[in-house]
Amino acid sequence: MQAERQNVDVFDQDASGNAGYLYTHTDRLSCRLATGRTTDIILEIGEMLGRSVLDMACGDGFYTIKFWDRGCPKQLVATDAAASAVTVGSQNSGTRPIRFLVGDAHRMPFADNTFDVLLLQSVLHHDHDPLHMLREAFRLAPRIIIHEPNGNNPGLKVIEKTSRYHKEHNEKSYSTSRMKRWIKEAGGSVFYEKTAGFVPMFCPDWMANAMKFIEPAVESIPLLRSTACAVYVMVAVRT
Fold it and tell me: What is the pLDDT of residues 118-171, one digit of tens each?
């Protein structure tokens, strides 16, 4: 539990010290390109339209607000264990009717099947027990959107070991095959999967521009896509 609290604390400190997370509250080109691609690949699925949605690890609300504005859900509740991050998200949401709450993703204060769709965005790789979190997600909603760093990418493994940010934030990644096993064990099955994105966060502008230029080609070649792209999105349903 101490390691889990440390994972929360580092993001709490980011939010309180920077008015948001380091990769969202920034003008760095690489971060803007990477977060933009993530937003697009989640929204293009169309899972949120007209549905009640729980964003179960909303962080500083950066993505949550975009999902409300562009995803057009009927209802959006956003929770996170990092209290400072939740405060930032709530403040930045303005008059939008998004409900922000501090909460433990392993023990959410909602009844079974409260929501139509649940979003687990880039949280499982920070958690001490991803399978338990998936089970809690399926308790609350019959459909889950999962977004994670692409653990099939060997370059990402190098970044995780060498990048100061990645080491400080205990960044790791899981392969798509392992994620599918966990989903099955949690009582679900995957019916949609996409691997995308090629621009790494916190890289120099020249590199971000070059990698964004070739990103469409990388995403279009199956073998290259599976081992070179930055993130994957899965949609799973309770079975």
Answer: 999 999 998 889 999 999 999 999 999 999 999 999 988 888 778 777 777 777
Report the candidate in 90, 26, 28 with the shortest Cα–Cα distance to residue 55.
90
Q: Under 8 Å CB-to-CB from 7, ≥6 apart: which residues?
A: 126, 127, 128, 169, 170
Domain of 226 in residue numbering reads as 2-238
pTM: 0.92
Q: Could you tell me what percent of the chain has a pLDDT over 70?
A: 93
For the four alpha carbons of 81, 82, 83 and 88, in that order, the dihedral sign comes to negative
Count: domains in the chain: 1
* CATH number of the domain enclosing 57: 3.40.50.150
Helix (H, G, I), strand (E, B) or coil at 116: coil
What is the C-alpha to C-alpha distance for residues 203 and 31, in angstroms, rounded to an integer?
8
Angle at 228 (CA atoms; ends 226, 232), nearest 5 degrees: 55
d(CA 188, CA 195): 20
At residue 42, the 3 state secondary structure works out as helix
Question: Are the C-beta atoms of residues 154 and 224 closer than 8 Å to each other?
Answer: no
Distance in angstroms (rounded) separating the CA atoms of residues 141 and 40? 22
| Long-range Cβ pairs for the range 98-105 (8 Å, 24+) | 98/61, 98/64, 98/65, 98/68, 100/58, 100/61, 100/64, 101/77, 103/79, 105/56, 105/57, 105/79, 105/81, 105/133, 105/136
Question: Which of 125, 93, 118, 92 has its CA nearest to residue 103?
Answer: 118
Distance CA 228, CA 165 (A): 20
Residues 6+ apart with CB under 8 A from 41: 147, 194, 196, 197, 231, 233
